[in-house]
């Protein structure tokens, strides 16, 4: 049997600060398999966030659930964006220009 690898899970519970938890998993573990091994309460919270269009990322890079985790990965559950950042900047710039702040 091969040695376990070290990964971190970073997610934000429904009413709290971002949480970083360390796990040891099989070297062939995918994100989907990792989720299946989580404690029930944590998996339920993550499932709720995924239904709200959250996505998985490793060090900020979007990944699918088929991604095979590597030693030292930080798996992140990223909430879906509410607004397009580019549109938000444009609206803010127009508003500030009209109010004379620019």
Give an account of the 3D structure.
By secondary structure, the protein is α+β, with helices and mostly antiparallel strands. It has one domain: Roll (Ubiquitin-like (UB roll)). The chain contains 3 helices and 5 strands, in the order ββααβββα. The protein has a 5-stranded mixed beta sheet with strand order 2-1-5-3-4. Strand 1 and strand 2 form a beta hairpin.
Write the layout of secondary structure elements.
Blueprint: E1 5-11, E2 19-25, H1 31-36, H2 40-51, E3 55-58, E4 61-63, E5 74-78, H3 85-99
Parallel strand pairs: 1-5
Antiparallel strand pairs: 1-2, 3-4, 3-5
In short:
Belongs to the UPF0125 (RnfH) family. With 102 residues, the protein is α+β, with helices and mostly antiparallel strands. The protein is built from three helices and five strands, in the order E-E-H-H-E-E-E-H.
